[in-house]
Amino acid sequence: MIVKSDLSEEVSARLQCDVLVVGAGMAGLTAAIEAAERGASVTVITKGPVTRDGAASWMAGSGFSAALYPPDSPEAHARDTIRVGQYLNRQDLLLALTNEIPRCLGLLDHWGMRYLKSEGKYVQVRFPGSRHNRVPRSIRNGIMLGPEYRRLFPKQLRRLGIRAMGDMQALEILSRDGAAAGILALDAMEGRFVAISAKAVVLATGGFMGMYPLTATSPTLVGEGVGMAYEAGAQVQDMEFADFYSNSLAWPPMYAGSIDLATMLRIDLNGKVFNSRGEEFLVAKKGSGLAQPVLCQQEIRSARCSPNGGVYLSFKHLPDNLIDAYLASMGDSRLLHSLGVMGIDIRRQALEIAPAPLESMGGCRIDSRTRTNVPGLFAAGEVAGGAEGAFTIAGNPIALDMAMGAIAGRESASHAREADQSTADLPNLAPSIEEALRPLREHSKNAIPALEARRELQKVLGNQLHLLGRTRESLENAIGKIVSIRRDSRRWRVQTSARTHNSEWMGCLELRHMVTASEMVARAALARSESRGLHYREDYPEPSPDWLCNIVLQREGDEMRVSRVPVEFPFMRPPEQQVPPAAKSPG
């Protein structure tokens, strides 16, 4: 039901629903489907066209880890994830997810995913980090599954009559009596605000690795979810951890950050990685304890790199006919064709690759039912933290995200059924609307172009919050710069005052949350005085058992409170030598 708003002339409409899902990737759409299946009225909003937005799901590769057949099991899946996550995972949450994933795979199959089967069973392959064959093969070798996922979900939305609204940029979580009560959003097509009240809100906005100047994910994933959740009082954890993907193209420029082709070629053709001296440095440094992205970035920083700031991925050790047969099995590849047009023949020339930000491990702190500490606020997908710990396994993220969405959908529908509050009343929206309009009206002499502020923030991210360069001095300096950027936020302006289709204005509205997310990354990285996962402190280069804890951030007034919360081990304990003395059993 749409009711004309009397709150302000700037608010074009007010929507009401039981469950409001913010974000329309696989986590968000799965949550919407599960909630609607249980009788909830559901609204989904996303800042791009529905299933044509920047969700990471639509860029997904072939990995969807699911423990289906013995000797594999959901418990074995969880053990692998905890081991790679270096024991920082929330184990009760992870076990709930690994048990949910097989059901999610069954839903995808039922909806029309085309998997390869033999005698009625999925044909599965093993991805790095897993001890069993766990990833179902698609019927066509080398296919990226993002477009396949995107094909399936709209049919389910139509089947259930779910209201899905594109080009709606979420600005703020609305609260009533300390509980989530809806969202204030901007309708980018009309340039007007929309107030949406709900009994439960599911955040599924994705991660924040698109903030970086060079990224392997969508540049639209810039941390609005964690920013809005933090401002609403939600706890956020593990923001120092992220996945920087080694197999990202560094050249040609139009494909910089692309991971699909280089990843498939490196895995399927056993590609070798060299520096500019022809040294296979990953082999030489095996056992150093440093992850591949860190080792690659060290070569790049030490000037043992390619002309375009990468390292070399080579296939010259293979005979031409073997490479030709593989390429033929891939079918038509636009990227492969483009490389050929540019004169790059992988049988004779190496690709230039470099680490690029791909996935954030940190996000909203949730329990095994995807609930945050804010009543009525749930989080699913990459916007949520805790499932993967300090690092991730190839093939895990998309499966964990969908499972999280499924649980969030059921739990939010249950919460909405039990909620006794009305969805009619919302807080005064005028201050929030005035703040959102400010960049359009800022014309003072000392106004700062929002694009300039964004570039300054990205310099901090690229130089001080990347893989290398994390020291106390550098991180304190980064925090100072971020705080300074935030302090100037009331002077941000955009060049045009147009209200409709104004991408610069939308980017400025994102920037507030980018600054918050960046500060959380910097403060969490400063707090963790050790190296773990891809969080590499050059002044503390080794892991320490004293840091088997999560760094949790929460708003207190205008301050960002940072605390350490010890990890619990209800399912799997780390090796004895990795446990801090205070946590060891007596005797």
- What overall geometry do the principal axes of the alpha carbons give? globular
CATH A-level architecture of the domain at 430-566: Up-down Bundle
Assign the structural class, choosing from mainly alpha, mainly beta, alpha/beta, alpha+beta, or little secondary structure: alpha/beta
End-to-end gap: 64 Å
Describe the protein's architecture and organization.
The protein contains 15 helices and 23 strands. It is of the alpha/beta class and 587 residues long. The chain is globular and about 70 Å long. Strands 1, 2, 3, 8, 9, 10, 11 and 18 form an eight-stranded mixed sheet that branches. Strands 19-17-12-22-23 form a five-stranded mixed sheet. Among the domains are: 249-357, Flavocytochrome C3, Chain A, domain 1; 430-566, Fumarate reductase/succinate dehydrogenase flavoprotein-like, C-terminal domain (Methane Monooxygenase Hydroxylase, Chain G, domain 1). Residues 1-7 and 582-587 have low confidence and may be disordered.
Set out the fold topology.
Blueprint: E1 2-3, E2 11-22, H1 26-37, E3 42-45, H2 74-84, H3 91-111, E4 117-118, E5 121-122, E6 124-125, E7 135-136, H4 146-160, E8 163-165, E9 168-176, E10 179-187, E11 192-203, H5 224-231, E12 236-237, E13 242-249, H6 260-268, E14 272-274, H7 281-284, H8 292-301, E15 311-314, H9 320-330, H10 334-341, E16 351-360, E17 363-365, E18 377-379, E19 384-385, H11 397-418, H12 430-441, E20 448-449, H13 450-464, H14 472-487, E21 492-493, H15 503-527, E22 549-556, E23 559-566
Parallel strand pairs: 2-3, 2-11, 3-8, 11-18, 17-19, 20-21
Antiparallel strand pairs: 1-2, 4-5, 6-7, 9-10, 10-11, 12-17, 12-22, 13-16, 14-15, 15-16, 22-23
